[in-house]
Amino acid sequence: MNEATFPFTALVAQAPLQQALLLAAVDPALGGVLVSGPRGTAKSTTARALAELLPEGRFVTLPLGASEEQLIGTLDLEAVLRDGGVRFSPGLLAKAHQGVLYVDEVNLLPNSLVDQLLDVAGSGVNVIERDGISHRHDARFVLVGTMNPEEGELRPQLLDRFGLAVMLENCFDPESFRARFADRQDAVALKLRHARAMLSSLTFDDAVHARVSSLCIAGHVDGLRADLVMLRAARALAAFEQAQTVSVEHVERVSESVLVHRRKEGKPPGARGEQGAHPQTDERTGDSDESTFGYMPPEPVDITRVKNVRPLSSKKS
User: Fold this and answer.
1) Inter-residue contact 18 to 46 (CB < 8 Å)
2) Can you say whether the dihedral through the CA atoms of 234, 235, 241, 247 is positive or negative?
3) DSSP assigned state of 269
4) If you compute the radius of gyration of the chain from its CA atoms, what whole number of angstroms results?
């Protein structure tokens, strides 16, 4: 199969469904497996996982809007028009041979299609007698039909024709699940309270400032927001871990989340963006002008020559 599939043997708490599918894979003449259950019970995931175990590995899905011709096959009209001969065009039943034919929400399919599906699934042969065609071909596949009982039921006659059935439930108890993690939740909540209380007492040394600056310069970020955010994030991490000081290691651990959406590529080393990260310096005196700090230089604007316009003469009163 082309796409990655969840391993059949890795499924958890699905023993009845796995057994039913394996039995139908051993003997497809059992007549298919009906899987009933609400959304989120891994019905389609399990069916795809089974297909990966089969020799051919085929997984064919029957869409709800499929026609009878798409299902069983029909006359190849292109061959008729081109050659004047009668040729069979295979349908989904032929494509599913030696694989899995999956029908999601089988209870919403027309009853006539379900009848045909079950006939072929039980016999292993698809017989077509229509449109001047008399054709038969092998169609041994594992039929897996799924349904959500909340969206309608199958007729009793069709239910009886499915060889095997499995009823699934969402065995999820929110209260017991939360109880399993209550101690860890309380521990994290306590750490958060302590971290907030000690946040203002943590300071930054020169090594931390230098590392923040070097990372931001290397990332060619605009302005000083990244520097400030990185310092605060490093301090928050130190507080959460109840460290006594903010270290360069804290800076390293938060730097990527600060820079990943701000990093600019292709700027010369040391560039900090168009907004000017440092005060401008007077080339003659070497003094920096604090009033120009953060100043954005004007962008050049193209000037387009226009044709000469003769001015209007002023009216004399």
Assistant:
1) yes
2) positive
3) T
4) 36
**pLDDT at position 209, please?**
97
Instruction: Say how far residue 149 (Cα) sits from the centre of its chain.
Output: 27
pLDDT of residue 112: 86
Contact present, 103 and 117 (Cβ < 8 Å): yes
Contact 126/137 with Cβ under 8 angstroms?
yes
Instruction: Output the pLDDT for position 288.
Output: 47
Q: Is 225 a catalytic residue?
A: yes
Please tell me the predicted confidence (pLDDT) of residue 54: 93
User: By C-alpha distance, which of 229, 307, 224, 231 is closest to 273?
Assistant: 224
Q: Are 24 and 16 in contact (CB under 8 A)?
A: no
CB atoms within 10 A of CB 161: 19
DSSP H stretches of helix in 199-307: 206-218, 225-240, 248-259
Q: How many residues does the chain have?
A: 317
Single-letter amino acid, residue 27: D
**197-207 pLDDT, tens per residue?**
999 999 999 99
**Per-residue pLDDT, 98:** 93
As given in the structure block, the two tokens for residue 159 are 């239910």
Cα 20 to the center of its chain, rounded Å: 30
Q: What is the number of other CB atoms lying within 10 angstroms of the CB of residue 151?
A: 11
For the record, the structure tokens of 56 come out as 């051919």
SS3 at position 89: strand
User: If you search the block for the tokens 């002008």, which residue do you land on?
Assistant: 289
Strand order in the sheet with 164-167: 59-61, 100-103, 142-147, 33-36, 164-167
Task: Please state whether the predicted TM-score (pTM) of the whole model is above 0.90.
Answer: no
Mean pLDDT, consecutive 10-residue segments, the chain of 317 residues? 79 89 93 88 89 91 89 72 69 93 91 88 86 82 91 84 88 80 95 96 96 96 94 97 96 96 70 46 48 52 57 56
CB 101 within 8 A of CB 110: no
Q: Which of 82, 211, 225, 262 is catalytic?
A: 225
